Write the C-alpha cells for this entry.
Amino acid sequence: MSWMLQKLDVFLAGVVIAAAGIFASQSQIFAVQYIRHADVQLVEARAHLEDVQGGLRFRTMGDQVRGELEAEAKAQVAKLEGAGARVRDANFLIRPLVMYRQGEPSLIDATHRDFVPALPKSAGLIAFTILGMLIGFAIYEAIKLPLAVLAREPRRRKFRKRG
C-alpha cells in the first residue's frame, strides 16, 4: 500500500504544481489584457467627454443637463485612468494581485469574457511561471505535512530484556 500512496503523492504534487504554474502564467497575461481593455475604454471615454464638451448635439441641451453629462464623463475618464494606471504601474510580481484588489470590476468582467489564453514568451513571464510552480509546490508540501504526520503509524518501542 505504501507504493500506491507514494505514486498518489507524486501525481497530486504534479497536478498542484502544474495548476499553479498555469495560473501564474495566465494571471500575467490576463493583467496585460486588462490593461488593454482599460486603454480602449479610456479612449472611448475621452472621445465621449470631448463630444459632451464641444459636440453640436450637446450644445443644444440646457446648461444644467450638459453640466451633469460633462461631470459624469469626467468621472468616467478619471475612473478609467486610475484603473489602468494602478495596474500598469504595479510591480511585475504583484500586478495580478493589484488588478484584483484595486481594479475596476466592470473591466475585470469584460476581460474575463474576452480573455484569450496565451503561452508565456518573455523571460519575465517564464520566470513568473516557475515562481508560481515553486509556490504551488510549497503549498502542496505545507498541506501534505500535517496530513502525513496524522496518517503515520505510531512507532512501537522495543524493550530489551534484562537479564
